[in-house]
Design brief:
Layout: H1 2-14, H2 19-40, H3 49-63, H4 67-83, H5 109-117, H6 122-134, H7 138-142, E1 149-150, E2 155-158, E3 167-170, H8 173-179
Antiparallel strand pairs: 1-2, 2-3
Helix pairs in contact: 1-2, 2-4
Length: 182
């Protein structure tokens, strides 16, 4: 089964994804291969759609996974089936789950003021103010350079963001002055 996992990781790597993504995508494929070896005593090519569904049910019951995580698992199984086993994938046999969506928590101005005033290190306070005012992710803020911040235009150039594309994050002058008025 190690050969299947190596081939899976190689195929994910060939897509140009990062090492972190390769590791993340391998999580449930490894569990699946162990399940086949230890419980079903079958090779991946021999598994039926019913057995794939049984694996997903077993995984959810054994680990108490959320619907979002089950969808990640199904996506990994899909990739494995198509790119490693070279078999067609039928989404009607193992559909993605629907899940509740939620709105993110957005603190009030007063909550932000209290939080930011509790931070004593000026460097961290400035970084957090910038992140909150522009909606930057931690990794995006970490890779910023001074020329990326265009204060006069109220925007920040975010290079190679989450999906490896560049974008502008805008900061309204009201929010900018609010955060830096401490």
């Amino acid at each position: 089964m190690d050969a299947y996992l190596r081939q899976f990781r190689e195929m994910v790597s060939l897509r140009g994804l990062t090492d972190h993504t390769v590791t993340s995508y391998s999580t449930y494929v490894r569990v699946y291969l162990d399940y086949l070896s230890d419980i079903l005593h079958k090779m991946p090519e021999e598994v039926s759609w019913g057995e794939l569904r049984d694996f997903v049910r077993w995984l959810q019951k054994a680990r108490g996974l959320s619907d979002r995580t089950i969808n990640c698992c199904v996506s990994q199984l899909r990739f494995f089936t198509i790119y490693v086993l070279h078999k067609p994938w039928d989404p009607t046999q193992l559909p993605l789950r629907k899940f509740d969506s939620y709105l993110p928590f957005v603190p009030t101005r007063e909550e932000m003021r209290v939080f930011l005033s509790s931070i004593t290190d000026l460097k961290f306070k400035a970084l957090l103010c910038l992140m909150f005012s522009s909606g930057l992710r931690i990794g995006e803020a970490r890779h910023l350079k001074c020329p990326d911040i265009e204060h006069s235009r109220g925007r920040i150039l975010v290079r190679a963001s989450k999906n490896r594309s560049s974008r502008y994050a805008f900061v309204s002058s009201n929010r900018w002055h609010f955060f830096f008025s401490f």
